[in-house]
């Protein structure tokens, strides 16, 4: 039976590439979308036209109850989740001087609490079955900090603390836990940055002189999810064109 891969935020720039890659490798792919997202049906239909039979469930990853309901439904209707990719995330950038509690909480809840909310629903089952993969999508800005992103950098750095601690706890149960920290990836969001800003401010920071491709991150997710990656756990893998090395 095909393994089930749940990718949160699969309708976003990186998430879609991850869904496509995992489907190509034979996983049964399921994704989530925010309960308010009105474009979910449209996305599913356009994926279907391209030959991808994805399932999608509404879930506010920032809410424990929503995560619980969503994964209970997925388990009932499809089966237990074998690979969880915690990919959903948001930014609410502003300098710390302007940062208010609302924007701090929104980013921490959506990017970091979500990792607890989702992982909590699947981790025990993975351990019982003796196989599982948890892959957390962090960011280069969680590794190096970024101006205007105290909230985002804190949440993304926190994800990796979670990864390392949980990796220790589940290491003997066939479950691996890893973090991926992408640099600038050419998703629609990043491609919307004016070309002159891209050329003068962003690309000079990247030794490879180009943005990453969503498919390159998806390839790394696929590797971490594979049986070949069974000995790799607790790692934070940078994929940033050389922008930040540590
Ligand atoms: P997008 O904005 O394209 O996608 C984000 C996804 O997260 C959307 O599908 C969105 O779903 C979902 N999401 C947001 N809030 C919630 C919520 N409360 N509940 C459920 N789903 C939610 O971003 P990217 O694809 O670019 O980014 C994906 C991940 O990669 C993020 O965690 C981001 O921080 C990280 N990253 C991205 C980089 C880049 O260059 N693009 C670089 C480094 C890290 P919906 O639309 O339904 O709300």
UniProtKB/TrEMBL annotation:
<protein>
    <submittedName>
        <fullName>3-oxoacyl-[acyl-carrier-protein] reductase</fullName>
    </submittedName>
</protein>
<dbReference type="GO" id="GO:0005737">
    <property type="term" value="C:cytoplasm"/>
</dbReference>
<keyword id="KW-0560">Oxidoreductase</keyword>
<dbReference type="InterPro" id="IPR011283">
    <property type="entry name" value="Acetoacetyl-CoA_reductase"/>
</dbReference>
<dbReference type="InterPro" id="IPR002347">
    <property type="entry name" value="SDR_fam"/>
</dbReference>
<dbReference type="GO" id="GO:0018454">
    <property type="term" value="F:acetoacetyl-CoA reductase activity"/>
</dbReference>
<dbReference type="InterPro" id="IPR057326">
    <property type="entry name" value="KR_dom"/>
</dbReference>
<dbReference type="InterPro" id="IPR036291">
    <property type="entry name" value="NAD(P)-bd_dom_sf"/>
</dbReference>
<dbReference type="InterPro" id="IPR020904">
    <property type="entry name" value="Sc_DH/Rdtase_CS"/>
</dbReference>
<dbReference type="GO" id="GO:0032787">
    <property type="term" value="P:monocarboxylic acid metabolic process"/>
</dbReference>
<comment type="similarity">
    <text>Belongs to the short-chain dehydrogenases/reductases (SDR) family.</text>
</comment>
<dbReference type="InterPro" id="IPR050259">
    <property type="entry name" value="SDR"/>
</dbReference>
<dbReference type="GO" id="GO:0042619">
    <property type="term" value="P:poly-hydroxybutyrate biosynthetic process"/>
</dbReference>
<feature type="domain" description="Ketoreductase">
    <location>
        <begin position="3"/>
        <end position="183"/>
    </location>
</feature>
<dbReference type="Pfam" id="PF00106">
    <property type="entry name" value="adh_short"/>
</dbReference>
